[in-house]
Task: structure prediction
Amino acid sequence: MSYLVYMFYRGAEWSLGHLPWRMFYWFSDILFVVMFWGVRYRRKVIRENLSRTFPDKSDREIHMLERHFYKHLVDIVLESLRMPYISEREIDERYPIVNPEILDHYFISGKNLMMASSHYANWEWGALVLGRHLKHTVKILYAPIKNPYIDRRIKSNRSKLNITLVPTTRTPWIFRQLHKGVPEMYAFISDQGPVDMKQAIWIDFLGRKTPCIHGVEKYARRNDLPVFYIDIRKVGRGRYRLSFRHITDNPNSLPEGEITRRYMKLLENQILEQPAYWLWSHRRWKRANQRE
Result:
């Protein structure tokens, strides 16, 4: 069964990868109708997250946010499937990095970097531009997909772009391998719920006490790594803009939890500006009552 799913996945990649962009988004519009009115994917979770985050919005406003979120969600799912077939010219045009030069002096001085990212806008395409335009070697910590064939396919696609995908289970190992060769950048998707609640860092986020994963903070402090936030903005359909936001050069000079508070505050500001582009289908607060 896993292999059949993989073959369907490859077929979808090929089909979507060869559509003109206008037809690509026409297909996305059709699929949006199916998802929103038919499948109703995680509709209850999405509605609850939006309603609790924006209690002052009317039912009509929450409904419109839901629609915009579903439309964006379908777009980014299809855009991720198209990744193997995007040309270098297309990705440069559709996903520029605004300020890559901000990292140059770290590279020259041989300094490794820590990056906190999030499930906002299109984080998948971000891998394409990071590998193409940065001098640092990019290592992205990720949760492997259960289907081993699809997981290998995704890793193969990314490995061609000066990017290494590292399973989160090997996080301690990757930081034991620090060396003095080409400087490296370690990118965490940092807005996921923590697996180990005992190590969770609790902050105020979108009006609620929220448990956050400790990885960025822990490994930045342990290895004295400068920390940046990867700020991704959606500026049009299929068009994004990436910039780096500096958090600290001296992680151990900050109070415990401050690094996490800073990058989650940057994410919160993005969400409040353009709420439809965050991944509301995650049950982000499902264990918020487990605070130790």
